[in-house]
Amino acid sequence: MSIYSLTYTPQRLKTIALICIVTALIINSIYFGGGYYSNPLFFGIASLITFLELALVSLVCTTVSPLIRRRFPKEEQVIKKLSLMIVTFMLVTFFFKYLLFKAYAALPYFQTEFNESRLAWVYLSISIIIIFLTFLMESIYRFNAWKRTLEDTELLNTSYKQSQLNALKSQVNPHFLFNCLNSLSSLIEEDEEKAEDFLNELTKVYRYLLRNDHEHLVRLHTELDFLNAYIHLLRKRFGTGLQIHISIHEKDRSWYIPPLLLQVITENACAQHIISKQQPLVIRIESAGHHILRVVYNLQPKTFSKDMDHDTALNTMIMKYKLLGLELLIVKNQDGQQHISIPLIVEKKETAP
Question: Which superkingdom is the protein from (predicted)?
């Protein structure tokens, strides 16, 4: 019986025992004929002896099988490997069966002669069983190997995504700090009191960043609380030139999004567009139904020099959503507005063990 592992789990032992019991009944029925069932004691003793012989054969085959597998590990050697296994298992089985039936003939209790014709039928039956079990166990072995490979690949993909998410996250915080420091620098020149208030709010904002630095997803209501603090910073700088309206359904607030996503979108809009009392930038953040969050703002772009990259953080978030298996849908120039659709995430999933 070809068992490809030396690890005897309870389930594996049950399987071996079941195979040995069934095979013992088949073998004894062929060799002893009707006399096998004539006496309960005879039936029990013969069944036990044959069962123990089959268990010994299974032990030998279990020891030999990994040796053959290690000798022929390559995929193109599978025919040679299976052929050698079948031949080896047959020889081992035939040897022990010959000894078994010689022992039955020698023991007076069984009152039977060595029957070569019935032994040949036993050999034929055993050969069919061996071939079937060898191919069955090879299929199980290959399936388990494929499953382990799949699990290892999934683990590698998860680890790779984790490293990518960490890399993307490390891009967002410095970018955000750089823009905040620029704003603070401008306020220091304009109004020191506003600059001090701005710095106090910035402290609150960065407390949020540090608290959620290890998270890849946060609840929407948590992100909105942070966004309100960030909007407070923006209004100290832009005044009435920036108008932000938030309208979120209560049921959507408990769902998840990547942290800083709304801040990045808001920051990107402010960085790329003219903001003044005469040309206010109006940003609307609202529930769009079907667990979709929509950000809409009017397009009034500034003129930038070629070396300025204000889309870095937004592109980072787009890539982060792709890693999470979702997509940020951005539609430009729709009635002079830009629409960003954000899928909300139902449940928080760990990206790595």
Answer: Bacteria
